[in-house]
Amino acid sequence: MAQLTQFPRTLSAPPARASRIASSLWWVMLLLSAVIAVYGATYFFTKPDDPHFARYILRLRLHIAGGIGALLAGPWQFSQRLRLRALNFHRWLGRFYLLEVALGSIAGFAMALVSAEGLPTHLGFGILAVLWFFTGLQAYRMVHRGNIEAHRRWMIRNLALTLAAVTLRLYMPLMLAVLHWPFSRTYITVSWLCWVPNLLVAEWMVRHRMPHLVRSTS
Predict the structure, then answer these.
(1) 106 by DSSP, 3-state: which?
(2) In 3-state terms, what secondary structure has residue 123?
(3) Chain mean pLDDT for the chain
(4) How many H helices and E strands in the chain?
């Protein structure tokens, strides 16, 4: 009988552990998103030293403004606690998030057309901008149709692309300072590396239906 009493507790351990892992990853995502948002905000107070960025400062700032809003709001869209306690706020925050995605992606596409290092980065950053806009639009369409599961799946994909702003700034210092790659090689590589692995991971999560990772957060 003692063994029967303890058996359910053993079964509940893996989901509990998975929930703790998901919660820890959510906090890491929130922290990194906030750090990158603060870094991006500096472009509104100082003019960039890079003459290329300085030349296209308006579209750059619009892109950064959308990115900052998406980074700050995005992680909270995956907070189960927030959804349960303040559903209305969750919905309004979601609208704000998708508006910021629209702004960031449209301005990002404009930036991709003039990005340094030519066609490879035009394509890399351009496709990122198109997919960022498209996945946000799909998330909006699904929630308005009342298809919450499909909405959640598209939001996972979209947030993965939002986090390209984080992964880009993690990879670039590694390539430049640690691997000692030249800027040209680094920039071309990160124009794809900052988002393709993110989207592949998101797609794996969506297709394998991992509720303990995509629904259970802070």
Answers:
(1) helix
(2) helix
(3) 89
(4) 11, 0
